[in-house]
Amino acid sequence: MAVEDLHGLIHFVLKSPTSLQTLFKPLQAALLRHHAPTSLYNTLIQTLSSSNSHSLSLSLYSLMLTSSSSVPDALTFPPLLKSCSRLRDLPLGRSLHCHLSSLALRSDVSISNSLISFYSRCGLLASSRQVFDGMPRHARNVVTWTSLIGAYVRHGQLESALSLFRAMLDSGIRPNRPTFLSVIPCVSDAKLADDLCRLISDEGLDGDGYLRNAVVRMYMRCGKIDYARKLFDSMEEKDLVTWSLMVDGYGRADMYFEALELFREMKVRGIFPDYVALLGLIRACVNSTMGSLAQARFVHGITVRSLLDRNVMVGTALVDLYVKRGRLRTARRLFDRMEEKSLVTWSTMISGYGMHGFGKDALDLFDRMKDLVRPDHIVFVAVLSACSHAGLIDQGWRCFYSMERDFGVVPRAEHYACMIDLLGRAGKLTEAQEFIERMPIPPDSSVWGSLLGACRIHPDEKVAEFAARSLFEMDSENSGRYILLSNVYTSLGKIKEANRIRSLMKRRGVKKTAGYSVIEVKNKTYKFLVGDETNPNSGLIYRELEKLMDRIREAGYVPNTNFALHDLEEETKERSLYVHSEKLAIVFGLMYLGPDSEIRIHKNLRVCGDCHNATKFISEVTGREILVRDSHRFHHFSGGRCSCGDYW
DNA sequence: ATAGGGTTAG
């Protein structure tokens, strides 16, 4: 009777593991009464762990410790460690590690493999590595290698993951499906992608649907969009994920129309888009350099009609979309209407205020959020940069000091960069320099970039050179840094030095990014390059531009030739300022937009000092509202002033 | 038995 009782219970538990919740007490009693052997415990633990009943599997381990009939063995620990890693229970996992060591089970491969995965899931990459290094070479199998590769991927160390993969191949271990699934996301180089595909087919895995999805995404990431599309088209069984990742890939590649077309086509083919596919479409819209406000509203409409607008991620993406289109009040309305908000939702709205120069609103929102969610390091970047853009110096410092003290968020290089920015805008260059020297972590290019950027507003040769020395080593490909330093020299009248930097840039073969401005007129967007004459009305545009320049000169505008093309004569320099893409776009807007519409411009680079100044005057003499979004933030020009306030 | 898992907002 009693034995049947135990068998019945176990049978029931194995068939439906979740039922153990209620049956745990009788099972516990039965296991102890019948002196259940280790193998029985192992089976139960294994079943529970693989059916996501992690607490229950761990409580059977506790029970095992109290029983006299069973001692854990090599098969007991792997599922237990898995349960610990799913529960992120580091202390318990560590005690399991101690226990199994005392039972001399450390040399078991499966246990070592489980430990590698456990430590990495609990955030201790170094411990994973320690376990791996402690294993004899011959004991490491595919699982061992794959676990360690996965550990590095989880910690974002993709290069290391790739070199481990190579080391694994070198030691004669053949990769399998899980190995490829871990390695494929590390690849962002087309050559490497081809190599990997060869290996996949060598292993006879090229028919695997999951792998093929991952491969399509890999080629999108490598920039081989057309090839990815070819693979996509050749796939016979495309599921929701296949479609979604392709839509998202187009979105990341700034190919809005292709993304939209695919989104429509999937519906036609009877695959109904879920929120992930929709996120891809919204991302395409956000990224779209030629994106208009009407386009944003259109995508918003699709979202509402798909009944997916209550999803937190979708809601957040829409808030971001309106922020990026310069529609802060609409963004805020959507934000307020969201029933569920995540950390990301809050940080999107806060950084939105920051980008638009509304430091006070950013701080107010941050105050409200503090009581509801624990801010992370990204929220603090948003808050600190909002303070620096709005010149809220005291609040910025208060925030910086409280982040670690009150929220346990240890400042990273980006946070220091914000503070350097804050000091720099206030003209406290010496303090900024000293602050960098006192940093407990090594300054990165964002920190040096902030210091150099401060010299744009407060030119200082020594400080600029100090910043540039480190910067040109760390970030030598970034043309903006060279131009910035050269402009600092120019504004100090050191033309020879300025030219030296320009030629250094040429010598190093650093490519200048071509700047452009996009303007929205009647739901359509028009793109202007420097000296652009491709517009059919360019003759007219240039004549209007001349007139406008005369008007703002009368109002007090003085051209700042520091921003002119470099190797020109002084008089030509002044004229070359007129062909900056931004001025062309503004004139185009003045000519073709109704008198009440706001002029909206989107630039891929930062707005230059001369254009910024000129735009202030244009807003004054024409009485127009001008909104410029550059690579960094927004500038609202109105009545001769700009929201950013501090720019030249 | 042990590893891994394709899309996901700042």
From TrEMBL:
The keyword 4Fe-4S does not apply. One of its GO terms (biological process) is RNA modification. Pfam families: DYW_deaminase, E_motif, PPR, PPR_2. Residues 556-648 form the DYW domain. One of its GO terms (molecular function) is zinc ion binding. Gene3D superfamilies: Tetratricopeptide repeat domain (1.25.40.10). PPR repeats lie at residues 141-175, 208-238, 239-273, 311-341, 342-372. Keywords: Repeat. The keyword Repeat applies. This is Pentatricopeptide repeat-containing protein-like, mitochondrial. It comes from Iris pallida (Sweet iris). The lineage of its organism: Eukaryota, Viridiplantae, Streptophyta, Embryophyta, Tracheophyta.
